[in-house]
Design a protein that fits this description.
Elements (H helix, E strand, L loop, with lengths): L2 E2 L6 E2 L5 E5 L2 E5 L6 E3 L6 E3 L2 E6 L4 E8 L8 E9 L2 E10 L2 E10 L1 E8 L7 E9 L2 E8 L5 E7 L7 E7 L7 E10 L10
Antiparallel strand pairs: 1-17, 2-7, 3-4, 4-17, 5-6, 7-16, 8-13, 8-17, 9-10, 9-16, 10-11, 11-12, 13-14, 14-15
Length: about 200
């Protein structure tokens, strides 16, 4: 059964510039230079993301929905799933080299990054879903009411507490405000692939 998570239930990993709640959802203004990354290729460690996190239970899923309205390099939003400072996953949409792209960063000591262009998603309502079942987090996303797309299957096998929720970052500019419209928990996906 789907259950709405109140915006007041989460705690920020890093406080945004501004957070405003209204009848339409949560409006989050990111700090310039905010990002989440560890070492790979660039050599730096950034842990200044704005992630609103609450407990994610095993055998459950979370869904975050937001309006996709990005203008600058690396503007990004989606879901953030955290085990600790060196083990986390962020997944959603990012503006990379002038194009909206759906992707994920999976970090286990060092980060990796995968992207797939979705330019037709600009200006529309995006939902990102992370489903934790067994030893994996399965990430799916969709725009409006279109079918779900598989984004990533990542290892998530831990006895430690896991927290998750919406996130945004603005690595290259000030003034990014992301409008999140919903945050829900649901049962996990029952299978990785649809029936043939």
């Amino acid at each position: 059964m789907s259950q709405t998570v109140p915006w007041t239930d989460g705690s920020w990993t890093n406080e945004p510039v501004e957070v405003r709640r209204d009848a339409d959802g949560l409006h989050v203004t990111a700090r310039e230079g905010s990002d989440a990354w560890r070492l790979t290729s660039y050599g730096f460690i950034h842990s200044s993301e704005h992630a609103l996190l609450t407990t994610l239970e095993p055998e459950s899923a979370l869904e975050v929905q937001f309006h996709l309205d990005f203008t600058d390099q690396f503007d990004q939003a989606g879901i953030f799933v955290k085990v600790d400072a060196e083990s986390w996953i962020k997944a959603g949409v990012e503006l990379s080299d002038g194009e909206e792209s759906l992707g994920a960063v999976v970090t286990r000591g060092q980060s990796d990054w995968s992207l797939s262009p979705v330019p037709s998603w600009a200006g529309r309502l995006v939902t990102v879903r992370g489903s934790w079942s067994g030893n994996a987090l399965t990430v799916r996303a969709r725009v409006d009411d279109e079918p779900w797309r598989l984004v990533r299957v990542a290892p998530l096998e831990t006895a430690a507490a896991v927290s998750a929720g919406p996130f945004c970052c603005a690595p290259t500019r000030a003034g990014l405000t992301v409008h999140f419209t919903s945050w829900r928990t649901t049962p996990p996906d029952t299978r990785l692939h649809p029936d043939a």
